[in-house]
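Propose amino acids for all 402 sites.
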């Protein structure tokens, strides 16, 4: 069970955690305001203010966590003491009350001595720079670099172990936590294993930790595909021109969400009807389709929005919109369309490939358009196309006709 200690002192609010890492909560607390994470002491440090303090307390209450508050802010001489407000019986600091020393007829007030807890184990922050340097030197993408560092930091926070004392049992426990508590898929678990193995085997030269770690079997799930009518219904469900163009780009060219948000005006060749995707997955460039309908909408969009460099600029024109923003655009359009499918923006890419296959386009050509390294990845769409099922009649129909 997680418990927290809030310490107010020297115009700082320190929020200490006792318990395992909680992904969603960690994101929520960072959203309260600017703060620093101290991995050694397992705490966040805010600039203290009434608003910040109240927001942290309300967040803890909403998650139903146990917490204690230690107020060390300066008080008048007559009231100077350590004030402890408890919601639970857990007090992370040890408070010792010394016996009063009587030198006069009147005894002095008891004095409070606060003993700081032992410093937390080394969580390996100094090694993460080495990990980052190694990944950069091997030309890993920024997304992979961030995820590798994040998985290793989360693992050490979860295990609360010294970086030099990690065992394969700790790794197994962490992977079980990701699988059962966080509901991670097999591919995501494999990503976590890759991150941990690279760090301990390549950077720390301790490959023995992973000798008994078995990789999970990959999920054999079929992609969620939308019909052509459903695709148009989703696109028509948004009245925002930019959002409409974004969804059209994903479906008409079979783009990944990371690819569509990073499109530049210069990537679009209207005369050749080609979109060039730069540094896609695997740091590969490729060309894909540019539809006539997209071109017409693009012309209107450029006249109204006048984008300079990025096709979909963010709030700061020097950068593009975030991936999460694009995902929310699709989620909103899906909800408005009334389509009852657990689809995501990536379903538009799946639908692009499936509809091309149903229209008789060669598998190898679709592979090139999608940027798949292996045609076996593209072949999954043969399992969701309706062509191979349309000529087969259900035995129920045969029975009812008799």
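Proposal:
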């Amino acid at each position: 069970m997680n418990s927290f200690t809030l310490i107010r002192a020297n115009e700082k609010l320190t929020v200490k955690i006792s318990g395992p890492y909680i992904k969603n909560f960690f994101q929520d607390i960072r959203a309260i305001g600017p703060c620093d994470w101290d991995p050694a002491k397992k705490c966040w440090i805010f600039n203290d203010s009434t608003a910040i303090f109240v927001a942290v307390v309300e967040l803890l209450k909403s998650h139903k966590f146990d917490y204690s508050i230690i107020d060390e802010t300066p008080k008048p001489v007559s009231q100077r003491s350590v004030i402890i407000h408890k919601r639970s019986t857990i007090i992370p600091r040890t408070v010792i009350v010394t016996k009063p020393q009587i030198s006069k007829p009147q005894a002095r007030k008891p004095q409070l001595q606060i003993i700081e807890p032992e410093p937390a184990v080394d969580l390996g922050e100094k090694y993460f720079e080495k990990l980052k340097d190694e990944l950069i030197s091997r030309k890993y993408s920024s997304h992979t670099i961030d995820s590798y560092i994040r998985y290793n930091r989360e693992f050490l926070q979860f295990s609360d172990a010294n970086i030099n004392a990690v065992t394969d049992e700790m790794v197994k426990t962490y992977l079980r936590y990701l699988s059962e508590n966080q509901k991670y898929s097999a591919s995501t678990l494999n990503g976590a294993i890759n991150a941990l193995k690279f760090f301990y085997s390549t950077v720390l030269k301790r490959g023995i930790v992973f000798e008994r770690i078995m990789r999970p079997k990959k999920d054999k799930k079929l992609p969620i595909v939308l019909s052509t009518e459903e695709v148009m219904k989703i696109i028509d469900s948004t009245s925002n021109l930019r959002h409409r163009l974004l969804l059209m780009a994903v479906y008409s060219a079979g783009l990944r969400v990371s690819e569509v948000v990073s499109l530049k005006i210069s990537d679009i060749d209207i005369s050749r009807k080609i979109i060039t995707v730069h540094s896609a997955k695997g740091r590969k460039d490729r060309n894909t389709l540019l539809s006539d309908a997209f071109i017409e909408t693009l012309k209107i969009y450029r006249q109204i929005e006048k984008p300079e460099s990025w096709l979909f600029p963010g709030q700061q024109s020097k950068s593009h919109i975030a991936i999460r923003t694009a995902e929310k655009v699709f989620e909103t359009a899906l909800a408005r369309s009334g389509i009852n499918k657990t689809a995501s923006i990536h379903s538009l890419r799946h639908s692009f490939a499936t509809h091309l296959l149903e229209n008789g386009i060669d598998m190898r050509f679709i592979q090139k358009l999608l940027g798949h390294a292996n045609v076996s990845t593209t072949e999954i769409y043969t399992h969701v196309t309706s062509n191979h099922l349309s000529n087969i009649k259900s035995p129920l129909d045969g029975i009812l006709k008799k």
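The first strand starts at residue 3 and ends at 9. Residues 142-159 form the longest helix (18 residues).
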